[in-house]
């Protein structure tokens, strides 16, 4: 499911987008990435709007936000790819890349989330507590920081600006 993450970090992984196309994360080499496990029917779902705002504001500076829908928390992402895409686009105007539904915990967790939770363990160790956990990854593919689901996109902005090398 991935190449050698020990030598290429985040850029050694890949995942399928909502249209079923395989996306090699090497395309994000040189970009700052915010990877987020998302859900369409979660109390934190309105964070999509804040994530989109950050994406539009900093995309030109090298930020990429990647959404990874997950149905492991309270059945809050029950829909198929079309339903997920509709929610993201129609309700929140999401233009950043969103991927096929994945597991983020357990034996079927997507390899990128197994790697991220190993590199940046949280309160539950190598597990993710809930939807909208955020992982900030540097331009070099190395994880920088993990943010809890309750941390709003606006509160992540200073760390994003720092990772992008923006002052002021």
Automatic annotation (TrEMBL):
GO terms for biological process: cellular response to oxidative stress. The active site is at 42. GO terms for molecular function: peroxidase activity. The keyword DNA damage does not apply. Keywords: Oxidoreductase, Peroxidase. Signal peptide: none annotated. The keyword Oxidoreductase applies. Pfam families: GSHPx. Belongs to the glutathione peroxidase family. This is Glutathione peroxidase. It comes from Aquisphaera giovannonii.
């Amino acid at each position: 499911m991935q190449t050698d993450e020990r030598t290429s970090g985040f850029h050694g992984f890949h995942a399928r987008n909502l249209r079923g196309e395989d996306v090699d994360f090497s395309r994000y080499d040189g970009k700052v990435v915010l990877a987020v496990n998302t859900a369409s029917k979660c109390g934190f779902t309105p964070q999509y709007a804040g994530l989109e705002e950050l994406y539009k504001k900093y995309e030109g500076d090298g930020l990429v936000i990647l959404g990874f829908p997950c149905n492991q928390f309270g059945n809050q992402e029950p829909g198929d790819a079309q339903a997920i895409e509709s929610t993201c686009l129609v309700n929140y105007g999401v233009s950043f890349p969103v991927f096929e539904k994945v597991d983020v915990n357990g034996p079927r967790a997507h390899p990128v989330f197994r790697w991220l939770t190993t590199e940046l363990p949280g309160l539950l160790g190598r597990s993710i507590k809930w939807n909208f956990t955020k992982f900030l990854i540097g331009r070099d593919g190395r994880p920088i920081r993990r943010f809890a689901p309750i941390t709003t996109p606006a509160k992540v902005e200073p760390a994003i600006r720092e990772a992008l090398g923006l002052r002021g």
